[in-house]
Amino acid sequence: MSFHTLRHSHTGAADQTSQDLSPSCRVQFYSVRLSVMLSSLALPLRLRPSCFQGSRRTMTTVVSGIKTSKLVKEKLKQEVETMRTRFSGFRPSLVVLQVGDRDDSNLYISTKLKAAAQIGIDAKHVRLPTTATQDEVLQSVMCANENPSVHGLIVQLPLDSVNHIDTDLITNAVSPEKDVDGLSCVNAGKLSRGDLKDCFIPCTPSGCMELIRHTGVSVVGKHAVVIGRSKIVGAPMHDLLLWNHATVTTCHSKTADLPDQVGRADILVVGAGRAEMVRGEWVKQGAVVIDCGINYIADTTKASGKRVVGDVHYASANQRAGFITPVPGGVGPMTVAMLMENTVQSAQRFLLKNQPTK
After folding, report:
1. Which residue, 51, 239, 297, 310, is the most exposed by fewest CB within 10 angstroms?
2. Of 38, 342, 42, residue with least CA distance to 200
């Protein structure tokens, strides 16, 4: 019997019954009848299998490095102001040493100088010509090392010289106490041993950890996978996660079962330098995905004919990850922010060691 037939077969009796009721009871009577009718309509819908049954679609949160870096820089600005007030105009000082005139290096340096100015750090750009020799670069490094008013020194890589220069020799010549890039063997060694309070941590891994903290996901006990083993990103990222109590797997170009390894990761950090190599279907449902890649691929819709992408295929990973960083606008801004944090920290250590407490 259809609902229409069922309704009319009882209408007469129901209406007769309602005539015997008081007005207030009659309203309640019809309310009950309406509820029964609606329930009868809904029953077939409840019994019908849902097209979403068993679906595990994750609502992905995009973790903005732009927003997070602003929070970091605002905190640092307040700390610098506190130092300036307490110690008669004292300001943290940073030297950026560049060899050559590469366009990409110029862009990165201008970003660092702008961030320093916003925070109140006195940043100085020292540029040597492309004809600079290794001894001349070392001399510039030693000059900054010996200057007590310089609290942070970074050597912009790569070194753009017509002469052969040993990059490791130069980065290790930077005083560990001023190595705000965290690239010297001394700082790397302390990080590998877990002496996190007594070293400078490389800026990109430090920024990744800050982004992970802002997701609210605890690293403790999680299975983390790092793709890449470079001295600047992959290796220190492994150490940072390990000493923050994650179980860490490092993958690289010789890893045979990369999709399987990625699929086990609660936290995935990718710094492999290959455009969109990590596919979304590899990613564990709900994982935290931090993409350190900066790659350029052809795109005829852009005026430049190319666009920036990460090491993770964003469109597909965005369908499975719980949290994901965009490229651009993810790890990049955090790298600069953490360089500023290391510089401020270096200045604070200098004051603690050399200035009387007021």
Report:
1. 51
2. 342
In whole angstroms, what is the distance from residue 42 CA to residue 203 CA?
58
Q: Select from 160, 169, 150, 103 the least CA-distant residue to 129.
A: 160
Note whether 204 and 292 are within 8 A (CB). yes
Weakest mean pLDDT among 1-10, 25-34, 57-66, 162-171: 1-10
Of 314, 309, 259, nearest to 289 (Cα)? 314
Q: Is 155 exposed, middle or buried (0-12, 13-18, 19+ CB in 10 A)?
A: buried
Give the integer Cα–Cα distance in Å for 315 and 323: 13
- H or E segment at 24? helix 23-47
Tokens representing 87 are 């110690």
**What's the pLDDT at 59?**
87
Helix axes 65-86, 103-119, angle to 10 degrees: 50
Q: Which residues contact 126 (CB under 8 A, 6 or more apart)?
A: 95, 96, 97, 98, 140, 144
Would you say residue 21 has pLDDT above 70?
A: no
Alpha-carbon gap, residue 189 to 231, rounded angstroms? 11
Task: Check residue 28 and give its pLDDT.
Answer: 54
Distance CA 47, CA 322 (A): 32
How far apart are the C-alpha atoms of 58 and 320, rounded to whole Å? Answer: 6
Enumerate the β-bridge partners of residue 278: 312
Band (pLDDT 50/70/90 cuts) for residue 355 is low
Burial, 124: exposed, middle or buried (Cβ in 10 Å; 0-12, 13-18, 19+)? middle
| Positions marked active-site | 112
Task: Please tell me the predicted confidence (pLDDT) of residue 354.
Answer: 87
Give tens-digit pLDDT for 45-71.
333 333 333 345 558 999 999 999 999
3-state secondary structure (DSSP) of residue 4: helix
What are all long-range contacts of 167-176, with beta carbons under 8 Å and residues at least 24 apart?
Answer: 169/134, 169/138, 170/134, 170/137, 170/138, 170/141, 173/138, 173/141, 173/142, 173/145, 174/141, 174/145, 175/145, 176/200
Q: Which residues pair with 291 in a beta bridge?
A: 270
Where does 49-121 show beta strands of DSSP type E? Answer: 61-62, 93-99
